[in-house]
Amino acid sequence: MIRVLLVDDQPLIRSGFRALLDAEDDIAVVAEAADGDAALALAREHLPDVALVDVQMPVVDGIEATRRIAADPALAAVHVVILTNYGLDEYVFNALRAGAAGFLVKDIEPEDFLHAVRVAARGDALLAPAITRRLIDRYVTQPPHRDARAALRHLTGREREAVALVARGLSNEQIAARMVISPTTAKTHVNRAMTKLHARDRAQLVILAYESGLVVPGG
């Protein structure tokens, strides 16, 4: 059963998402919060698999809530998905850097929304290749960041290759085919890279890959 925490300051939005999620046999909403401060407390209490967090809220916004959840070792298994009305914007980018696994626009189709929750629960990033390109084109086209570039020195050559392929939007199975290795080995390379780079999830690997210059837009 996928356990979900809903965080949005609009009760009508929360009730709509709850009705959609609770209708599924494999998903259950375990708690709701109207701001990021309450979200952190409820995340610690219920340990959800997925936290759906509105990016703009009073008291504590979605970016700060994401940052606090990502920084809490007890919440390492909680995958934060940002909810936004506006699509890809600076708030979403900052939330991804803070530790979010991806983002969803609130007018998403119901079947796509449910699929996204299941994807996030598996620990995969909600960053399709088209979204990744828009993200990079808009925000990470500056020269490589020194700290991000230095962090890559801890990776083996195969781990660097795997991270570059993650940044291109490939799944573990696709990475395995490209590198001519087993999916298990591909997953191992990705997981070891995440550990060495202190990346919470694949979304942060994507950002690090571009910020470091390992992958360049259009390359």
From TrEMBL:
Domain of life: Bacteria
A GO molecular function held by the record: DNA binding
SMART domains for this protein: HTH_LUXR, REC
Keyword Lipid biosynthesis: no
GO biological processes: phosphorelay signal transduction system; regulation of DNA-templated transcription
Keywords from the UniProt entry: DNA-binding, Phosphoprotein, Transcription, Transcription regulation
Modification 4-aspartylphosphate, positions: 54
Domain Response regulatory intervals: 3-121
Occurrences of domain HTH luxR-type (ranges): 148-213
Presence of the UniProt keyword DNA-binding in the record: yes
PANTHER family the UniProt entry points to: TRANSCRIPTIONAL REGULATORY PROTEIN NARL-RELATED, TWO-COMPONENT RESPONSE REGULATOR
Protein name as catalogued: DNA-binding response regulator
Naturally occurring in which organism (per UniProt): Paractinoplanes rishiriensis
